[in-house]
Amino acid sequence: MNDIILSRPPRPRPEFYPEARKLTEQEGQEWNAAGRCPTPILGLDPSVAKVGWSLSLGNRCYSGVFKPKAVSIQRIREVYDWTLALLKLYRVSHVGIEGYSFGSLNSRAHATGEIGGVIRLALNDLSIPSVEIPPTSLKKFVSGKGNTPKASMGLALYKRYGLYLTNEDQVDSAGLSIMALAFFHRECLDLVGTQRESLSKVSRIV
Length: 206
Fold this sequence. Notes:
- The structure is a single chain.
- The chain is built from seven helices and seven strands.
- The protein has helices at 18-22, 72-89, 109-125, 135-143, 153-161, 168-184, 193-199; strands spanning 29-30, 37-46, 51-58, 60-66, 94-98, 130-133, 203-204.
- Strands 1-4-3-2-5-6-7 form a seven-stranded mixed beta sheet.
- Helix 3 (109-125) links the parallel strand 5 (94-98) and strand 6 (130-133).
- It is globular.
- The two termini are 21 Å apart.
């Protein structure tokens, strides 16, 4: 996959999970990088109701939101199957996933943990090098401040990298993808001090 720049992601084969096929119909946006992302790097922002995803490849970023339709245990299976399909579809080389927010625990905390767990299981099953990124570290990496409101992250992402995304889940997943790029291929980005500090809080999970 080295040195391949695509105007849109490769078309999936029919046997891939149907929902993944729908996510490949959009054009990627160009973003500002000192170098090009040498391999497909995926950012994942999971929650109970949806999963924001962004894939960085070359100098482009592709992004979307997956909303599982099933309920109860079948929702967990659906998220696991979708994650495997997306990873295989794009031949993802590395992943950055948002860590759990322990400061905002609520009645859905267990369900959130289940969704995050099966995504991590999929990453482990395919042995894809992956990192867990704390929410405050993501905010600091993109905006320079660890307490930036979620609603302001889109503007910060646009100012720093030229990516215009209005969906908050896509904004976060794009930041996670770029941050994973910085972790695994630091030579591809010009980093400032706050970004290097943010990377020190990142943990390998696979």
